[in-house]
Write a structure and sequence with these properties.
Layout lengths: L9 H10 L1 H9 L12 H5 L3 H10 L2 E4 L29 E4 L4 H4 L3 E6 L5 H16 L3 E4 L5 H11 L4 E4 L13 H10 L1 E4 L9 H13 L4 E4 L7 H10 L4 E4 L9 H8 L4 E2 L3 H9 L7 E4 L4 E4 L21
Parallel strand pairs: 3-4, 3-7, 4-5, 5-6, 7-8, 8-9
Antiparallel strand pairs: 1-2, 2-6, 10-11
Helix pairs in contact: 1-2, 6-7, 6-12, 9-10
Length: 325
Amino acid sequence: MTKLADAGDPQVAALVGQFGAAPVVDLIRGGLRGGAWSGWSEQAIAQIDPAADLEQAERQGIRFIIPADEEWPQQLAALDQCSPQHDRGGVPLGLWIKGDQPLAEVTRAAVTVDGSRSASPYGAEHARSISADLSAQQMTIVSGAAFGIDQSAHRGALAAEGLTVAVLACGVDRAYPAAHADLLATIGQRGLIVSECAPGTTPSRTRFLARSRITAALSEGTVVVEAAQRSGALNTARWSNELHRPVMGVPGPVSSITSEGVHGLVRAGQATMVTSAEDIIEDLGARPMASGAELDADSHRTRRGRPLVQRPIPGLKENRQPPSR
């Protein structure tokens, strides 16, 4: 199905949800046309061979998981209750994964860090340091492996020997952007690369828009570090708000164009302002208890998944003193 339909097509998700993937494939092969499949020729559909695709993927160290699998992150189910955005939405039909660790386990305690591709040195440094500090608290960093804030977030997690997940808008067998081939190779070895697009798929605007919902849904909340007024990171923030999960913004200089989107989120009450990993953990801990939540005995806040490890965050003063006057 991930070869027959584009990522995040809500009509396809509805059909599969009603009939199941195998019957829908049979319908397509039997002559169902229009909508998501209007551009497919009879010959192209006839050449679809799921067994051969899975075998080829396995040879490349890639696996495919579906919602019924034990490895499937249950937090993705919340997407079923969200309204489509930019005509993209719904729970992914399946996910292609590169990396050895189970996705559900890796994302039990995760934070999405997103932001501008044209990041300033200020933004890149904050994304890197915040991600490193969160990793020190055993939080997994989720991002999109793009230029700017994304790559800084991944590198911060890796530098702290933490876990990181790259969610792509193309096949997991493709290095996109090409300049990040080494970074993606490292993430594949020490973390996970994830996509709902079949191997070989090229990136496109709609796939980037669809990717945002997965980036947001895999984590407990989204941190935006620099975003202009029309930044794609704001789409991730909208999905996080739609999922009723915290959106947090790192403030920048008031004159910075790359921070206008972040400041707008905070001003509109759609995000809280954070300046450190400590702030982020506090906001995440304020979430209502969900199924499987555990109580952090020190703070009496609730957290989903594994409990917070109580250790100092590098670079933060544990006992803050009021400024002298």
